[in-house]
Amino acid sequence: MRRKIVAGNWKMNLDFQQADELIANIVKELNQHHRKDVDVVICPPFPYLMIADYEAETNGYFLGAQNVSIFNNGAYTGEISASMLSAMCVDYCIVGHSERRKLFFESNKDVAEKVNRLLENDVKPIVCVGEVLEERENGQHFSVIKKQVSEGLFHLTEGQMQQIVIAYEPVWAIGTGRTASTFQAQEIHSFIRGLVLEKYGAETANEIRILYGGSCTAKNAKDLFAMPDVDGGLIGGASLKANDFVTIAQSF
Ligand code: PEP
C-alpha cells in the first residue's frame, strides 16, 4: 500500500522570522492532529533548511529542498549540490518544477541529471511534470507528459524508480486558483501510472507515489485525494498558511 504524502513548496517566500513562525506553527498543529500514515514534507528556501530541519525531523516530518545542482561539486558559483542537501538531512528535493522549466530553462535532460545526483546521495526526488494551457487546449497533454516522464525518469533502474515521487502539476493550475477537476487529475495520474507499468511492471507502478499540484487548497484537497491514483499533493500557496496546510495534510 502506498503511503500518502503531502509536500509544501514555500518557493522564495517569507523572511527569517516568518519562516521560523510558520514551521513552528505547522509542527504544533500537525502534532495535535497528524495521522501517522501520511508523510509530510516541508520544502523551505535553502537558507531556512536548518531551522526547518530541527523542527521537522525531531517531530517525525520530512525536509525537502526546492532545487539541486546537476554538478557534484566545484567552481559552480551559487549552486547547491545533492551531497550538501544530504548533509543537511534533506529527505526529498523538488525537481523540474514548471517555474524552473520556464524561467530557468530546465530541460528534461537536466531533470534526469538532477534525479541522478539526488539518488546518488539518498535524497528522494519529487519530479514535477505538467502541460501548459495551450498544450491542454490542443489536446497535447498526454504526449507532453509522456515525454517529460520518459526523458526525465526512464533511464532509471526499477529499484531507483521506486524511490521517485512524481507530481502532476498542470501549469495552468499553478498559483491561478484554477484547480484541475478530479476527473482531469485522475485521468492524468492513471495515465502516468500506466506509463510506469508499461516500462517497469506492476510492482513499481503500484509503489510509485503520484501527487497532484496546482491550486490545491483546504477546500478541494479531500475530493482530489479521494481519487484512486492521487496519492497526495504538492502544495504551493496554501503551504504558507499553517492552518490550511495542516488541513490539507489531513484530507485523506
Ligand atoms: C506549486 O507551485 O508547486 C503549486 C502547486 O502552487 P499552488 O499550490 O500555489 O498552485
Mean pLDDT: 96
Number of helices: 12
Low-confidence stretches: none
Give the strand order of the largest sheet, numbering strands 1, 2, ... along the chain. Answer: 1-2-3-4-5-6-7-8
| Strand and helix order | EHEHEHEHHEHHHEHHEHEH
What form results from the Cα inertia axes?
globular
Query: What is the number of beta strands?
Result: 8
CATH fold annotation: TIM Barrel
CATH class category: Alpha Beta
Q: Which ions, cofactors or small ligands are bound in this entry?
A: phosphoenolpyruvate
Number of spatially distinct domains: 1
| The CATH homologous superfamily | Aldolase class I
Helical percentage: 40-55%
Name given to the CATH architecture = Alpha-Beta Barrel
Please compute the radius of gyration using only Cα atoms.
Answer: 17 Å
Structural class: alpha/beta
**Distance N terminus to C terminus?**
14 Å
Measured by DSSP, the beta-strand proportion falls in 15-25%
List keywords for this structure.
252 residues; TIM Barrel; 8 strands
Mind explaining what this structure looks like?
By secondary structure, this protein is α/β, with parallel strands linked by helices. The protein has one domain (4-249): Aldolase class I (TIM Barrel), CATH 3.20.20.70. Helices cover 45% and strands 15% of the residues. It has twelve helices and eight strands. The protein has helices spanning 16-33, 49-58, 82-87, 98-103, 108-120, 133-137, 141-153, 158-161, 182-200, 202-207, 221-225, 242-249; strands spanning 4-9, 38-43, 62-65, 92-95, 124-129, 165-168, 209-213, 232-235. It has an eight-stranded parallel beta barrel with strand order 1-2-3-4-5-6-7-8, surrounded by five helices. Helix 5 packs across helix 7 (141-153) and helix 7 (141-153) crosses helix 9. The mean pLDDT is 96. Bound molecules: phosphoenolpyruvate.
